């Protein structure tokens, strides 16, 4: 394979791995924040629109 193609495939793989790592990081952060929320102040959602 040409060297440029290998470089391109490595770059794409690194971008995919980086994106997955960031998504997992944000999921953990969101889960941590949700556990810290004072759930007693949450209101039950009621649908406003009647179809």
What does this structure look like?
The protein has 51 residues and is an all-alpha fold. It has one helix at 3-36.
Q: Terminal Cα separation, in Å?
A: 58 Å
- Low-pLDDT regions: none
Strand content: under 5%
Q: Biggest sheet, open or closed, and with what strands and sense?
A: none
The string of secondary-structure elements, in order, is H
The DSSP helix count reads 1
Mean of pLDDT? 90
Structural class: mainly alpha
- In which range does the helix fraction lie? 55-70%
- Rough shape? elongated
How is this fold's topology laid out?
Layout: H1 3-36
Q: TL;DR of this structure?
A:
This protein has 51 residues and is mainly α. The chain has one helix at residues 3-36.
Features:
51 residues; mainly alpha; 67% helix; 0% strand
């Amino acid at each position: 394979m040409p060297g440029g193609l290998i470089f391109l495939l490595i770059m794409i793989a690194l971008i995919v791995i980086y994106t997955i790592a960031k998504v997992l990081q944000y999921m953990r952060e969101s889960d941590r924040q949700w556990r810290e929320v004072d759930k007693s102040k949450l209101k039950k959602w009621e649908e406003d629109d009647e179809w």
